[in-house]
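User: Quick one: structure for sequence A, then sequence B.

Assistant: Sequence A:
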Amino acid sequence: MASVQPLHRREGVNLVQLEADISSIRSGSSVASIALPDYVEHTAGVTRVGALSAEAVIRDYESAAKEIEAMGTELIDAAQKCEALTAQVHDAIAFMRETAAGYREEGRKIFKRIEECALFTEDVRKTCEQVKRRMAEVSVGESPRPEFAELEPETEGA
């Protein structure tokens, strides 16, 4: 870890030496060799130290701006995923509504069928009661109709 040394202001700072130190750290030898963002340019006559300081600051700001844009891109991606999920949810809800409507229709059909069967059963029961009543009203003996004569019960011991 680098140690931080206090900078003491000295009278007569050697700007030439400072420029040389900065140039030795930089890979390029001239101010023009570093590509700047297109929204800034060096002012004519600025000292090398001023230009380098301005470049360092603008690079930090540009780096931060790019990170902010990247977050915006990530946010857009998240929003698109949310929109896709929302569309899927709407599709699922529509499917559920269709399924529920189908169940209701099927229930209505079964309900109607059961009631029809109940009515039919009631008609059969009434018809059977009417037939029983007619049979009870007919006297035991010769049948008035020849087709029922053979169905008459035989008497025992005959």
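Sequence B:
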Amino acid sequence: MELILKQDVQNLGFKDDVVTVKNGYGRNFLIPQGAAILATSSAKKVLAENLKQKAHKEAKVVADAKATAEALKALEIKITAKAGGEKLFGSITNADIAHALEANGQTIDRKFITSGIVKRTGKYNATIRLHREVIIELAYEIVAEKA
């Protein structure tokens, strides 16, 4: 079944993508949730016209995302956490990285940050998706909190 996505769907595609899914997933989940519509020939023509009009607006968004990426690469992120030796009491997640970025003046939603769960001090990398075309690796360090 071919569908046109009306919003981003994780592990499937982005808004305005034409995707092929199994019939049950499309009819029972995506369409009732309002996440997709059927990809009929007329819907594809409307989509093509809309994409053509959005193309020049998209260039500005990509330029802004690249500027943000350069600003993020210049940052040196250090996250302090309570630890016993090298092992943390708790863990560092995407939300903690988002808070550290916000403290440095960059507001990034945690759902666009992929780092996994970290339970030890040290240096790590997180992947940040600023735009579908702009994905960067951000180095950060976890240090033990001084008592």
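The CA atoms of residues 12 and 19 lie 8 Å apart. The chain has a mean pLDDT of 91.

User: Thanks, that's what I needed.
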